[in-house]
Automatic annotation (TrEMBL):
It comes from Magnetospirillum molischianum DSM 120. PROSITE patterns: HEMERYTHRINS. Keywords: Iron, Metal-binding, Oxygen transport, Transport. GO terms for molecular function: metal ion binding; oxygen carrier activity. This is Hemerythrin-like domain-containing protein.
């Protein structure tokens, strides 16, 4: 079993979902940011498939930057509306940020990316659920910010 990663056959970028219109929050900029985040997670998964730890780290760093910008943009929008769930929403953002940072830390520590499939699937699942269950809830307030 020499040289075989833990997930050689199961970490495949093609199984990750792409963003699509059915989860549009009704704002072009925020939709584009969601799409970029999904694409970046697929990018990370692609480097995991290739076993390229350095590229995985760089791609996760870019993902963290995209998440950071997106959360700031959403939270700025909340403060321009009467959206009532800002505190809980910010905590969800903090949890997602921690998930991504945790993945980064584990890669940096072990230099092994073969375990990342499960973590990335959890992260993208958490992102999808956050958009559907939490982000779509601010849709009705967006017009107040215009
Ligand atoms: Fe979002
Ligand atoms: Fe959000």
């Amino acid at each position: 079993m020499e040289g075989k990663g833990l997930a050689d056959s199961s970490v495949s970028a093609h199984i990750y979902p792409k963003w699509n219109r059915s989860i549009s929050v009704g704002d072009a900029k925020l939709d584009r940011e969601h799409e970029e985040i999904f694409d970046q997670i697929i990018m990370v998964a692609g480097f995991v498939d290739q076993g390229d730890g350095g590229a995985v780290l760089a791609a996760i760093d870019h993902l963290l930057a995209l998440l950071e910008r997106h959360f700031i943009d959403e939270e700025r929008l909340f403060s321009a509306t009467s959206y009532p769930h800002t505190p809980a929403h910010k905590i969800e953002h903090r949890v997602l940020r921690h998930m991504a940072r945790h993945i980064r830390g584990a890669v940096e520590l072990s230099r092994d990316v073969s375990f990342l499939g499960l973590s990335l699937r959890h992260l993208i699942q958490a992102m999808v659920e956050h958009i559907i269950e939490i982000d779509l809830g601010y849709r009705a307030y967006l017009h107040e910010a215009e």
